[in-house]
């Protein structure tokens, strides 16, 4: 390669041919990245592996397949999208009769950056914290955690990949 990292025909003597596996099948890619259902036996080991996807839709497809394949019962968590009063800065929803209709409508919307309305998880699922929840406990953006289980309709328990002995789960 030249300094601008383009390959030229005259450099062919120095080329290295790589025989990298490729697939168009979701299941084959999952088996390659997580052999022998690694996500069921060693979720911590999964934290150092990844499948690179070109779109969020592809990420969702892989995540759904892995969650469906995992052992255990699925916990389903729903977002509660509540529109606020016009010009308001408080958390009071609109008239309750309008809220149910708005929830149904907002659940069908799948636009970025709004996350999906439904989150399906099974104990042992690897997750990533997407916002700074607690600097004190190290639950910050991009921290990898393992889902332990549901602790109510609006609360989940997770454990850090490398936990502090004083705070093993949250």
TrEMBL record:
Top-level taxon of the source organism: Eukaryota
Pfam families with a match to the protein in the record: Pif1_2B_dom (PF21530)
Location of the DNA helicase Pif1-like 2B domain: 115-141
InterPro entries: Pif1-like_2B_dom
Protein name: DNA helicase Pif1-like 2B domain-containing protein
Organism for this UniProt entry: Vitrella brassicaformis
């Amino acid at each position: 390669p030249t300094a601008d990292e383009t390959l030229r025909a005259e450099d062919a003597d120095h080329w290295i041919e790589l025989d990298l596996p490729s697939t168009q099948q979701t299941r084959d890619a999952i088996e390659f990245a997580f052999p022998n259902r690694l996500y069921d036996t060693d979720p911590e080991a999964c934290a150092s592996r990844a499948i690179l996807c070109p779109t969020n839709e592809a990420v969702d497809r892989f995540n759904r397949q892995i969650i469906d394949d995992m052992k255990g019962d699925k916990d389903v968590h729903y977002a509660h999208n509540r529109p606020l009063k016009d010009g308001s800065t408080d958390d009071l929803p609109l008239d309750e009769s309008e809220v149910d209709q708005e929830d149904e409508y907002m659940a069908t919307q799948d636009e970025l950056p709004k996350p999906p309305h439904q989150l399906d998880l099974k104990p042992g699922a690897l997750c990533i914290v997407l916002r700074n929840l607690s600097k004190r406990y190290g639950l910050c953006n991009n921290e990898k955690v393992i889902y332990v289980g549901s602790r109510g309709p609006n609360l989940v328990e997770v454990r850090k990949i490398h936990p502090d002995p004083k705070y093993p789960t949250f």
